[in-house]
Here is the input.
Amino acid sequence: METTMQNISIEKTEKTKIDQVDFDNLAFGSVFTDHMLVCDYRNGAWEVPQIMPYQAISLEPSAKIFHYGQSIFEGMKAYKDADEKIWLFRPLENHKRLNISAKRMAIPELPEEFFMDGLKQLIKLDENWIPKKEGSALYIRPFIFATGKGFHASPADEYKFIICLAPSGPYFSGKVKVLIEEKYSRSANGGVGFAKAGGNYAGQFFPTQLAVKKGYQQVIWTDDHNHEFIEEAGAMNIFVRINDTLITAPISDRILDGITRKSILPIAEDEGITTEVRKITVGEVVEAAKNGSLKEMFGAGTAAVISPIATFGYREVDYDLPELESSFASRLKKRIIDIQYNRAEDLFGWRHGV
Amino acid sequence: METTMQNISIEKTEKTKIDQVDFDNLAFGSVFTDHMLVCDYRNGAWEVPQIMPYQAISLEPSAKIFHYGQSIFEGMKAYKDADEKIWLFRPLENHKRLNISAKRMAIPELPEEFFMDGLKQLIKLDENWIPKKEGSALYIRPFIFATGKGFHASPADEYKFIICLAPSGPYFSGKVKVLIEEKYSRSANGGVGFAKAGGNYAGQFFPTQLAVKKGYQQVIWTDDHNHEFIEEAGAMNIFVRINDTLITAPISDRILDGITRKSILPIAEDEGITTEVRKITVGEVVEAAKNGSLKEMFGAGTAAVISPIATFGYREVDYDLPELESSFASRLKKRIIDIQYNRAEDLFGWRHGV
Ligand SMILES: Cc1ncc(COP(=O)(O)O)c(C=O)c1O
Ligand SMILES: Cc1ncc(COP(=O)(O)O)c(C=O)c1O
Here is the structure.
């Protein structure tokens, strides 16, 4: 047990598992590094985090996580540059969003230093796990869940904040086909859609399975009232290019405020691309697909980076998007990745050294 | 280890904790019996359940329950009659609903015999824990959650079904004051509101806390579109009596199909009470409160049984309900409790011996 300046105690693993990992063939989020960070909320306060070997957690069956879905998470990545320096991308935004989610789910907010110091120390300890292959990265999963006990439907009195690290390959493989959903919905007005709350994801699984059976990978969610507006995908915000204008829906209490999305907007502007943040109707997208003005659609998120959509389905019809020589998606993806991997100037001050 | 006919293995506790329990002062769902039932889903099938001492569960931090909210539950009660015979109330309905929730949350459905046999054997083993005090009961909590691992937002490949038992006192203490909610919502059209999914409850905690700060115990949810229709409360369906008609909202994909609610309707009819199942507008309830035709409002659910509402708040105004000599609520509550405790004829075949 060493103790660092920040009082985070570190218990190192006796034997690393890194030799067992095939870094050339990583799936997404299925291999975990040697260590994890654990921080408990008890007696009204977050206790000092501890770093320890990746290990199982013991919970009573009456812990509220099992019953009332009180859980939130974040998704981030760590990147290594040519000089082996480690970088994060806008990590303070993840911390801020974690606390926005926490508030909505009646979970106590986490102090910034516990998040940032814990994160950096954990990554440093497991830095050999950061994949070097292009398209792979160290996926970071901070999460909080209710450990407090009882069958009364009310907020727990105890929580655990954990960070796990997972060296990961690409989120999607192959061409991305999406289905515009008209029956099921992801979130309600006044609901929890803007929070990265566990239950928002479980609710998407069944409709997504139905879409997968029809040959799509993802559902594009629309509003729950008339299914008139395009909102977002499972774990991505959506961009649509009509002629030379790049459009994305405004965030709302139904839509996650994606960090990739809000980074793409200023980069696009810097690229001289006209952007619009406004409601997008399904009707206009279908119309644009028919008349040829729909040039691109892509998803944007930490896990999927920028994922061009090859085809969208709507009311039993598939609409293929053109294959462009030089797409907005590829230009923007290069710009954002070059910032993340420290291969380009950090115009907006987004890079954060570990 | 004994093995029963149904092949459910039973490992008994070495020492009961029952002596530590104050059965005269039970809170709701905070004391647990000596045993629990555990059943694992692995390799595409539910394995035979096991009964074992109530104990902690060990899970990897990457178990999907922590990340994607894949969890569902049920709430039931066991009752003891004057002859110490044990009864359940419509348990097959709980099993059916568990599987309806399972399907929507992409959780594998559970065979009826695992649910029913497991439940009965567990209750028999812990039958001394069934409280005898009027208003107390053995609360039963069957639940399923995702134990399968990984950070890919997709259904887990492994699950646990558990039943825990909690001798419990009343859910509410004192007069129930509710607030009709106009900003936050519980569920979306096409969402998961009809499922007893964990995330539906966590999403209610923050708005409920705000209501509690204003002096209410519960929120009455309205539709997420215009907040025009009264839907249900945190863990209760809602009934409104205007003059001599008892009205409750129709179930939908936003509202839980409560077993208490659907038992009250035929009992009310048998009592000669006119019932209506139709949309209830907030406007008509407020209007009825003002003109004196609103006689009663009550919540109905397994935990809360029938809980008369003393006051509802709407747009900063509190409306008190009259105190009636002989209310529908008390008549219906007596009828339903008498069936549950085997003190009255079981007209509808709802009682189920253990
Ligand atoms: C529902 C949802 N939308 C959008 C995103 C994209 O957000 P970000 O770019 O911050 O990863 C995510 C990502 O994790 C998500 O879960
Ligand atoms: C959201 C919600 N509505 C209504 C009810 C009432 O259902 P039941 O009568 O089956 O207990 C519950 C109960 O558990 C509930 O969680």
User: Anything to note?
Assistant: Residues B 75, 196, 232, 235-237, 256, 258-261, 301-302 surround pyridoxal-5'-phosphate (ligand 2) (CB under 6 Å).
